[in-house]
Design brief:
By secondary structure, the chain is an alpha/beta fold. The protein has nine helices and 14 strands.
């Protein structure tokens, strides 16, 4: 790239991996914000709609899949992770952007945060309005994500989420609203930074292990251990626990009430499951706070604790932990460190 004075500037290489989602969604009307087809628009069309990305990076794109992210699978996660690791290992890019639907964006981000083996930036980006909508938020989100992926300041911070001029970390961010463009937040721990007029400013960083410091390796995996989430509620029972055990589950995240409290009927089922070798991790449905220690009776039953991870992210960590060990003390260590 040449400046107005004729100086040649070497732009960072940024690879965009597209998976579909609302950012690539298409509707019949410009005023239609729901009932659209997610993932209908391919990566090249998205790039053509935001030519300004070429002012900030040497950009190339690749379509991984074209789905609504509520249909994401462990298999697609493994495909993305292996692709990202290969791109960095081969020196094909200095940063990677992944376009993604918002429904499970936080889960994909956290999975990649645990298995990517590079300090280079990986940025997930989505949109809350389809590409065909009035005031679609996808184009500016994509532009900012490309800027961030090519920014040396974004290195060694784990996988990031860039939407609505805000930078979130993969571990703590969650979707907090069904339709607002500022849906991704880390309610108690806060944003990692902001994007102001295209420039990134960082204020926080995660102290938990991630990316290059992570012990999890997926290059030789073709599937992940089966872990299920069971949501605690009034008048709960053990029916779903027993069904999960019958289906061959290896781990259960119990999204308990308050500080990971378990209904007595469900507890009976979880005790029986643990005795059969199923790993039980207590989490909380509250959305904020930690589950650490707690009632002595749960510790006596060898139930583990999920720290501050949401149930959906605890499922990911437990699944990866089970690729390495069945030892409960080791798995608890992982929840304390990641």
């Amino acid at each position: 790239m040449k400046t107005a004075e004729g100086t040649i500037i070497q732009l960072p290489k940024v690879k965009i991996l597209a998976t579909g989602g609302t950012i690539a969604g298409s509707a019949l009307l410009k005023t239609q914000m729901s009932e659209y087809k997610a993932g209908a628009i391919g990566i090249q069309t998205l790039l053509d709609a935001v030519p300004q990305v070429k002012d900030h990076a040497d950009v190339s794109g690749e379509q991984i899949c074209q789905i609504s992210s509520n249909n994401i699978t462990d298999g697609i996660w493994l495909q993305i992770a292996k692709k990202v690791n290969a791109i960095f290992n081969n020196g094909e890019a200095e940063g990677i952007v992944i376009t993604h639907g918002t429904d499970t964006l936080e889960e994909t981000a956290y999975f990649l945060n645990l298995v990517i083996k590079s300090t280079n930036p990986v940025v997930l980006v989505g949109a809350m309005r389809p590409a065909t909508a009035i005031s679609a938020d996808g184009p500016i989100n994509l532009l900012n994500a490309v800027r961030l992926a090519g920014n040396p300041l974004a290195k060694n911070k784990g996988v990031l989420i860039a939407m609505n001029d805000e930078i979130n970390g993969a571990r703590d961010a969650t979707k907090t609203n069904t339709s607002h463009v500022n849906t991704f937040r880390a309610p108690e721990l806060g944003y990692m930074g902001y994007i102001n007029n295209g420039e990134a400013f960082f204020y926080n960083a995660s102290l938990r292990k991630h990316t290059l410091s992570s012990e999890f390796v997926v290059n030789d995996l073709d599937k992940l251990p089966y872990v299920e989430i069971i949501y605690g509620h009034a008048n709960d029972s053990r029916i779903l626990v027993d069904a999960a055990v019958e289906a061959g589950v290896r781990g259960i995240i119990y999204a308990g009430m308050g500080n990971g409290s378990i209904h007595e009927k469900a507890e009976e089922g979880l005790i029986a499951a643990q005795k059969k070798g199923v790993v039980i991790v207590r989490s909380s449905r509250c959305g904020n706070g930690t589950v650490k220690g707690g009632q002595v009776k749960y510790s006596k039953e060898n139930f583990l604790t999920g720290d501050s991870l949401s149930p959906q992210k605890a499922r990911i960590l437990l699944s990866l932990a089970l690729t390495k060990t069945n030892k409960l003390d080791e798995i608890q260590r992982m929840f304390n460190e990641y």
